Amino acid sequence: MDGVVSFVWYNLVIGIIVAIELCYFLYLETSVTAYRQFVLTTVGGLVLAVVGGPITELMAPSLVHFVHGIAALLVILGLYNPVTNDLRSAEWSQVLLSEPSQVRHPAEWMTPMDDEILNVFYNTNLVLTPSIIAFNIGFSQKEVNRRLTELEAHGLAKRVERGKYKLTQHGEQYLCGQLYRSTSRIDEESGIP
């Protein structure tokens, strides 16, 4: 029984450390203020699970499952809006990921230069030539031409006319992290090779 109690104390210490880290995150992350209500609800559920669970297990072991159930409910309400029946994925991506490239799923054929090329299209919303793209991202026109051909072949960029390209809808979805190109099943559904 002594081993169980020491394990509970270990869980409590780890829970307190995680709670401190979450509070530190909430204090420093400026984008959290716009979504404070659901972030605090989710964090409250996490803190209740990692701190309240071990405390309850020490004080009233029969209530542990009740505390974990309440914690899970808080996390769910923080992540999911039952009124609009919608996951708060856009809000969480704003809070947790300031750089969209962290949610992208590049295909095996893609290079880091592809992201830079697609970003130039996305940021300007213009039809561009390879030389203008090359100038803006610091690569040679020959390299950009080669990558544009590959991006066009996979449906992320489109040649408007000779030497002029634009971003496609699939390219925009990829940049926003909404196009999962790593699985062949989804590639078949989207119609992209």
Structure description:
This protein is mainly alpha-helical and 193 residues long. The protein has 2 domains: 95 residues, no CATH class; 90 residues, Winged helix-like DNA-binding domain superfamily/Winged helix DNA-binding domain (Arc Repressor Mutant, subunit A), CATH 1.10.10.10. Helices cover 64% and strands 7% of the residues. It has 9 helices and 4 strands, in the order H-H-H-E-E-H-H-H-H-E-E-H-H. The strands form 2 sheets. The protein has a two-stranded antiparallel ribbon with strand order 1-2. Strands 3-4 form a two-stranded antiparallel ribbon. The protein is elongated and about 75 Å long. The N and C termini lie far apart (59 Å).
**Shape from CA axes?**
elongated
Strand arrangement within the widest β-sheet reads 1-2
The total number of structural domains is: 2
Q: Give the structural class.
A: mainly alpha
Order of helices and strands: HHHEEHHHHEEHH
Alpha-carbon Rg, integer: 24 Å
> In terms of quaternary structure, what is this?
single chain
Uncertain stretches: 181-193
Q: Name the average pLDDT.
A: 78
Helicity, as a percent range? 55-70%
Beta-strand content bin: 5-15%
